[in-house]
Amino acid sequence: MKVLELHGDFGFDSLRIAERPDPVPGPGEVLVQVRAASLNYRDLLTIQGIYNPRQPLPLIPASDGAGVVVGVGPGVTRVSIGDRVAAIFAQGWLSGPPNREKLASTTLGGPLDGMLAELAVFREDGLVHIPGHLTDEEAATLPCAAVTAWSALVRHGSVKAGDRVLVMGTGGVSVFALQFARLLGAEVIVISSSDAKLERAKALGAAHGINYKQHPAWSKLVRELTGGEGVDHVIEVGGVGTLPQSMRTVRMGGHISLIGVLGGVEAPLNLTPILMQDIRLQGVIVGPRDAFLEMNRAIGLHALHPVVDRVFPFGETVDAMRHLASASHFGKLCIQMREQ
Q1: Domains of the chain by residue range
Q2: pLDDT tens for residues 59-102?
Q3: Run of H or E residues at 86
Q4: CATH for 2-141+306-336?
Q5: Tens digits of residue pLDDT in 108-158
Q6: Which of 64, 136, 170, 176 has a CB 3.0–4.6 Å from the CB of 36, allowing a cystine?
Q7: How far is 236 from 233, CA to CA, in rounded Å?
Q8: CA distances in angstroms from 263 to 169, 236, 239, 322, listed in the order given
Q9: Which residues does 264 contact at the CB level (< 8 Å), separation at least 6?
Q10: Model-level pTM?
């Protein structure tokens, strides 16, 4: 089978298409023909050697993908040949809160091989069935970005109809957060540096869009849009570069989901607003299989379609990675693993 390997050293120049033996499923294992993969910022950091500089190589990158079951080992009962499935991000995290046992050495795309392979073997409980109305590429976007957004809003945030949600940016997690917040009946405010992206966000149901380049003090404008009260929930992907303004946008007793650190991880931070306004600051690391299943039921019920900005053929995966690094996409970037 063909795979994309990070071989020898970190960096784009070390990515190469290689041949590996076709895997064979053992007891309790499932063989999946991968039809599509999607890219996350974590994949980019892994390839650059930033996410885990001690990651053993070679490595097949990309944690997210979807495909069809083409083989099952002895004792498999959860899936059958022909089922369309996606792999969960942390193969050991099936339910409950995270811990080291559930997460250590069980995540795809590092330290485990990821989804940029024609075939892959998983434990049967490391797979979920995908909603039938989704394309392979749409389904491939779900394991990290969608589950993270769902965890932030539902598992941690308990967002409900009538709440106000501030979504930062228009990348994969942020667009899913917009879609899920609207599905839950919340009013959504989106900030971005692009007026064109803000118009696309409004077409998905955002009530307001703020260009943060035109309004550097965007927290003040968010306050004005909410009658001075502030939002109930913030999807925070900027890290220390944006967190101080996020704390000024959220209401007393509100919730900030810290998901990304695109603007940096270390800087002086005034913690007084968190204490004096009873703000909940919650780190979010994807979610368990149970959350994935719950989310899929909602996606199927509402016939929700993930936003796929662009699909690259397998042979152009490095170009897709560079496009991801440019941050010019809206929603998700996908890799088509098979010929049409």
Answers
A1: 2-141+306-336, 146-283
A2: 999 999 999 999 999 999 999 999 999 999 999 999 999 999 89
A3: strand 84-87
A4: 3.90.180.10
A5: 999 999 999 999 999 999 999 999 999 999 999 999 999 999 999 999 999
A6: 136
A7: 9
A8: 12, 10, 5, 19
A9: 239, 240, 241
A10: 0.95
